[in-house]
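Subject: sequence -> C-alpha cells, single chain

Hey, anyone have a minute? Need the predicted structure for the following. Not urgent.
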Amino acid sequence: MVTTESWEAIDVWRFYNQRCCMENYIKEGKNGFVIHRIATQSFAANEMDLLLKLLAYNLFERFKLQCCDPIQRSFTIQRFHREFIQCAGVLVPSGRQFTLKLAESFQNRWAWLRMERKSILLE
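Reply:
Had a minute. Here:
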C-alpha cells in the first residue's frame, strides 16, 4: 500500500482494510438496485429516486440479517431474486386476503417458509 500518512504499517493496513468492502457495496447498489441510472432531468426527483433505492437496499440488508439463515445472508439481491423470487407459485385470492401457494418442486421451500415465519415476528 502506498500512502502519505506517517503511520506504522499495521495502522495503515487497519485503516484501509476497513474500506475494502465499500466497492462491493457500490457494485451491489448498481447491479441490484440500479443506483447508477438517472431517471429524470430534475435534481430533486433524482435525489428522491436515489434515496428510495438506498432505502430498498437497506431494507433488503436488514431483512437478510433478521430473517435469513446464515447461508442466505451472503446472497446478493440478484442471487436472492434468482433463488427465491423467481419461483413457481400461484397467488390465490380468498375473501379479503391473498395466499401464496408455492410449487411442491420449489427447491428452497423450507428456507422460504422459515424466512416467512421470522418476518411475521418482526416488529
